[in-house]
Design brief:
heterodimer; A: alpha+beta; 5-stranded antiparallel beta sheet; 4-stranded antiparallel beta sheet; B: alpha/beta; 6-stranded parallel beta sheet; 23 helices; 20 strands; 38% helix; binds flavin-adenine dinucleotide; binds thiamine diphosphate; binds magnesium ion
Chain lengths: 163, 569
Amino acid sequence: MRHIISLLMENEAGALSRVAGLFSARGYNIESLTVAPTEDATLSRMTIVTRGSDDVIEQITKQLNKLIDVVKVQDLSDGSHIERELMLVKVRASGEIREEMKRMADIFRGRIIDVSDKTYTIELTGPGSKLDAFLGAVDATAIVETVRTGASGIGRGDRIMKI
Amino acid sequence: MADMELTGAEIVVRCLRDEGIKHVFGYPGGAVLNIYDEIYKQTAFEHILVRHEQAAVHAADAYARSTGLVGVAIVTSGPGATNAVTGIATAYMDSIPMVVISGQVPTAAIGQDAFQEVDTVGITRPCVKHNFLVKDVRDLATTIKKAFYIAATGRPGPVVVDVPKDITQHTCAYEYPAFVSMRSYNPTSKGHAGQIKKAVQMLLEAKRPMIYTGGGVVLGNAATQVTEMVRLLGFPITSTLMGLGGYPAPDVLFLGMLGMHGTIEANMAMQHCDVLLAVGARFDDRVIGNPKHFAKEARRIIHIDVDPSSISKRVRVDVPIVGEVAQVVEEMLKQIQAGIGQIDQTALKAWWTQIELWRVQDCMKYDRSSSRIKPQYVIEKLYEVTGGQAYVTSDVGQHQMWAAQYYPFDQPRRWINSGGLGTMGFGLPAAMGVQMAHPGAQVACVTGEGSIQMNIQELSTCKEWKLPIKVILLNNGVLGMVRQWQQFFYEERYAESHMTSLPDFVKLAEAYGHVGLLVEKPEDVETALRDAFGKYKDRLVFINFLTDPGENVFPMIPAGKGLSEMILV
Ligand SMILES: Cc1cc2nc3c(=O)[nH]c(=O)nc-3n(C[C@H](O)[C@H](O)[C@H](O)COP(=O)(O)OP(=O)(O)OC[C@H]3O[C@@H](n4cnc5c(N)ncnc54)[C@H](O)[C@@H]3O)c2cc1C
Ligand SMILES: Cc1ncc(C[n+]2csc(CCOP(=O)(O)OP(=O)(O)O)c2C)c(N)n1
Ligand SMILES: [Mg+2]
């Protein structure tokens, strides 16, 4: 099962390597990991997307909680939540496909944020599946470069993770 | 006082003093020279100069195991720190509270491949409870306080504080915090009342109850509470290698150690019980064998552990209780005494009848008429001669198992061994740590000729400190535990498990300034031991017992097999 886990941790040097080290040392997989400071500069918030059986996910959350720098852990998949990911994709946009690319960006509610005579760079946000869908919808040979942030997640409504 | 500025080096030493530290094990070097200069000037604690940093860490570790205090070691940067890693990992695997202070190259040199630079925080990260790199002298005292706090609370463990050399020169006002609190670290100590009640009810309903205790009982100073509860219930109890002494082994309720080299009665009762109470034990692979085989018999499990991640890690449990053993068991005891349930005495009696049928198989018997010295016999005699009151440290191998099986510990913190990492070379430095903590006590180091050579240089430290340790070398001339596996599972292909040259251990002991004895015949075993603890009471005595090289450790559960699949002889 895919799980999206959110954590708040002390914004200390080395905190990220403790989390990454935990996953590699115990053989857990990381599909994506994003991290940045929060509005409280002493805290970082990390979102990890991982896969595993219920037993493995239980161990992952326990092991994360055990890290001294980790303040709070929440498995967002336990309840209703929102996920977003940002992708920047550079596509070939010369000749007849230039119009086509513009249309695709519009359909997926993307924004063209950089233009050259041969390329467009499109910014897309959404759940990972939407970004996948975009990549599936355009001609693969037209894709020059992609960069994705990995998912960030937040609970809906009253589901709040704060200290 | 507060406005007086101290150097970082002075602060390190003052923190140790204010933490109440009496003994520090270590080895100097460039990055810690300032700290050593301050150690030179102080009298609050003794510094024990070892011969290898691994030994400093093992000694500090065993100091902690035998006292319950936090052990302290100091090492220099680079090779000092890497030499310490085996010791740190050993302590980590067995959850031993320890603070290691390592020197580091000056802050400005970090990352420059400077002389004797290693990324100590990076190297030790997977084998510490936590570690710190101090980047500002103003954080030093608080960091050291946090290190002691983290090491000793919750599930204990080693903490490394890496201190760059320039930090030991910088100055600031010193104040040692009386306590620290951390928003990210709040171990649970009190068990959930509802869960405890459920556990007691389940336990009292049992027809075939079993209690399985581990290192947590020793680490959590809960032997008294556990013993009282077990005696009140009259239930059978077993212990892991790490929990030995947590319940008096000579008692009839005690079924002996369980696991790979556990007794028939302990392993069978573990497999066939209907309610299992696990206390401060972590269902290790050496203990339950194959979890699938273990799960074949239905039983309900109650698990008390201070670390939630130990619970339901390898075996699903029905009633998890996160908390300190001492507190939780005390609470259980109260409820049992208050009479919240009745034990089914008829069922219990039938269960004991079954257990006695396993017990009479006498799985620990061995050939007592052999003309060769049997290692089991040496340990039995050691028990007799020391009146069962010695601190026994061990190395790793067959001799370790025999020490565990044939020396029935009746108190916690007397049996000092490396269980989780299984570190050969642990025994002798561990004995140093124990003897420093308990100067008048009998301390025996049970070892093998393979293991002792991994830290034999410490005989020199023992001489300097006049430590009257008794080295009980069960010299079978082979890496016995390896040889045993090769005999059973590799069709007797004895690859590299035999050393064709060994030192003359008697002369070696003498060269280090100690007493060396050679014992070749069973009839001389007792005299040698009596001499060691009598005539040579104040000396380190190294006894080289030439034991039967063909002897194996039984019972044995082959790796990957289940608790009821023991090899008996
Ligand atoms: C050659 C060799 C052979 C071995 N054979 C065997 C064998 O036959 N049988 C055997 O048992 N072992 C054997 N071992 C040891 C084995 O590898 C493990 O180290 C050992 O079984 C673990 O013991 P434990 O479960 O008590 O856990 P420990 O490692 O002692 O862990 C203690 C547990 O208690 C918890 N705890 C700590 N403090 C507290 C507290 N205050 N309150 C509550 N909980 C607390 C911890 O979180 C942890 O889960 C062998 C080792 C070697 C080297
Ligand atoms: C540092 C280290 N290296 C290797 C091993 C693997 N090992 C476990 S027991 C053993 C043999 C120990 O031989 P000895 O000390 O003579 O004890 P014996 O088994 O003969 O009693 C070995 C090599 C280990 N546990 N630790
Ligand atoms: Mg040997």
